[in-house]
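Hi R.,

Here's the chain you asked about this morning:
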Amino acid sequence: MIDRAAVRNNANYLRNVRPIDPEEIAEYIEGGAHPAVVRETLREEAFDLRLREREDGAFEPVPEEPVPAPGWAPTALPENYSFALEDLLVREFGANWHRGESGDELREAVRRLKDDYLYGNDVAYDRVAALGYAIYHLPAYYATIGYVLDDLVENALLDRTLRVLDVGAGVGGPALGLHDYLPDDAVVDYHAVEPSAAADVLDQMLDETGRNFRPTIHEETAESFLGIEGRTATRSDDTPDEFDLVVFGNVLSELDDPAGVVEASIDRLADDGSVVAFAPADRNTAMGLREVERAVATPESGVSVYAPALRLWPDATPSDGGWSFDVAEDLEVPPFQRRLDEAAERGSADEPGEFVNVDVQFAYAILRPDGKRRVDVRASDGRCARMADSEGHVTDRVNYLAVKLSHDLSDGDNALYLVGDGSQTVDHYLVCTRETVLNDDLRAADYGSVVFVENGLVLWNDDEGAYNVVVDDETVVDLVAP
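And the predicted structure, written out as tokens:
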């Protein structure tokens, strides 16, 4: 057995002198050691030593600076991931996987998964369902995680060495997106929890990641891994005691007790770590995610909502429906989706595209145990009204501090935006009936931005059961925090 302490000591000495060559360290080990054994030992110790392995096999220190903004804006699922998925499909079903019986099975699996998500049914994955899931969801889920991580990176809250727990990792969309989002000099100790047949697909997709993205797959339930319901949490030698980032990518709706699982994951989170959860933009899953956020981030728990649905009134908790989601640019249709869709039998009135899914629309929440928020902005009674009190302001003009929680929801007439301040009990919308230079910050503000609305006219919309705050030529809207 190799002397690990000697390997660590020599690596710590050489890190400040020159790139660390396993062959050189092998010469310093008492009794000798094979360079290949030294290299594998360095790989196992690299995270704690903050070392990354280079293409030439040498090791060098990971920079201390946090992850920089990568300008994440993917236009397509990268070809290497597309090829890897098609290789899986060909190995499973043959070159004509999209035709005949196998094509029919895959299309039926996609239809069934779509229905299960729509109606909130329990989702089950066999091998065919896992591959169908990958065909339909992998591209959009790959893109989504980067847009969510942007909120952490803008405040330098993502380190170049990351211990990641991916709960319900599925077929690997979030994992591959995380891999490509991070810089080449990052080192990731990645742990996936995936009990279903999707784990086999995930395992093979992770073969496409680089040498400094070190994956471990735990084929068990989240409840088992986290020690919920009286079970003993997973604490094997290769599993960290705590994680810097816990990801729930499109899985909360599939858990029996999503709030309980998220709470348990926070117990495994580093003090400065983040829970990142996202879900499809459809009403049920998006509102379900917001319910979990509100159940976990309570004044008693000390957990804060970092983004996007900021609590601008620190003593308040929202209780509106919470159907809020962000929208990014569509991706190009990947070849495997096109093949499956074009091979489908259709009647003369059937439209193509049933098996194409390149919309990047997602609800998300970032939670932190340290109280940090994306922007440290708070409302005050002296300057603005609470949305919880809007009933008493109907037909009045008031000021609100608000988070923009949608893109334009109108059909092209008066621009319409969902907003919140963390106190709202029903939905609030800003309706721009006349844009001026004094209120055009409303249109220009990004999703999640904080705006100050001065002199908005509060009206009740009985049809929608919501408040419409009219923004017109008497209203001023200022961008407080982008």
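The chain has a mean pLDDT of 95.

Let me know if you need anything else.
M.
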